[in-house]
Amino acid sequence: MPYSPSSRHPNRRLAMAACALTAMTLAAGSAAAQPGEWPAKSIRMVVPFTPGGGTDTVTRQISERMATTNRWVIVVDNKPGAGGNIGLDAVAKAPADGYTFGMGQTANLAINPSLLPSMPFNAKTDLLPVALVASQPVVLVVPTDSPWKSLQDLIAAAKAQPGAIKQGLASTGTVGHLAGEMLSFKAKIDVLNIPYKGAAPAVTDLLGKQTHYMFGTPQAVYPMIKGQRLRALAVTSAKRLAILPQVPTVAESGFPGFEAVDWKLIVAPRNTPAALAQKINAAVNTGLQDPAVLKQLQSEGSTPMGGSLQDAQAYLQKEQASWAALIRDAKITLE
C-alpha cells in the first residue's frame, strides 16, 4: 500500500479537516462583519433630550424615513439630562460597531464645550460627525402691544435705559440664550437676563409684562405670533423663514453676518467604520428629499441641511470655533 500521511495517521487527517473548517468559519465570520451585511440587528438612535421636544421630533421624522426606505429597524432611545451631555456621552462610550448613533445639536456639540467648566466627553475627538439634518433659528419676540416695532427700536430703548430692559431666557446655555448674548455684544447694550426652566413660563411672563423680549424657538412662539399675542421683530437665521416671510433677519436689521441656529447633526462613536457612517449619511440625504419630511420641517421653522461626511465635519468645526470665540470675547458665563 503506498504511503499516505492521511491514511496512516487518521488523527492528523482529522486535525487537518478541523483546521480547514476553522478557516472557513473565520472567513464566513469576516464576510458577515463586512459593511455589506449591515445591519444585522436594530440600530439605536440616541436623543439626548426628553420625548416631544424639537430634537426628538426631528430625530423621529428622519429615523422613520430611513427605516421605511431601507427596511431597517431604528430604535429611538431618549437619554435626557445635563443639557444633552448624558445622552451624547452614552454615544461616545458605545461600541463603535455601527449600531449606535445620536442626534447632537448646537448646544451640546458647539456651545457646551466652551461654556461649561467640564464635559463628560470631548466633542472634538470622541464623536464622529455623520450627517447634518436640519437647522432652526430662534425668533426675537415682544408682546403685540409693545412700542417696539423693529429690532432697532428695542436696541434704542436698551441704550436709553442700561440694565433696565429684561430679556427672558427659556433656559441657559441654549441657542436662544446665546443669540441674546450675541445681540447684546454686537449692539453694545446692557440688558438684564431673567432665566426660566422652559419656554412655557418664559412666554407666560413675557405676555404678563414681567420681561420685555425673548428669543424663542418657532415651536414655542409661532402659535402666539399667529394668534397676534406676540410680535416677531427678527429671526436669527441667514435667510427669512418660510412660515414668517414678513419678518426680517437680524442680519438684515443692521448686523451683517449675524446667525444663530439650532442645527441637528447625527454623530457616532469616533471609530465607527466610515463605510457604515456613509450608509447613514446617504440615508439622511435621501430622507431629506422626501416631500413629506420637507413639509414637516418647514412647518416647524426648520431648514433641511444634508451634505457629505466631510461637510458635517467641516460645519461642526466651524461652529465650534465660532461659538467659542463669542463666549470668550463676550465673556459669557452661566452665572
UniProtKB/TrEMBL annotation:
Which PROSITE patterns does this chain map to?
Answer: TAT (PS51318)
Query: Any idea which UniProt keywords this protein has?
Result: Signal
Q: Which residues form the signal peptide?
A: 1-33
Please name one Pfam family that this protein belongs to. Answer: TctC
PANTHER family, A to Z: BLR1237 PROTEIN (PTHR42928:SF5), TRICARBOXYLATE-BINDING PROTEIN (PTHR42928)
Family according to the record: Belongs to the UPF0065 (bug) family.
Protein name per its UniProtKB record: TctC
Q: Which organism is it from?
A: Comamonas thiooxydans
Query: What does the record give as the organism's lineage?
Result: Bacteria, Pseudomonadati, Pseudomonadota, Betaproteobacteria, Burkholderiales
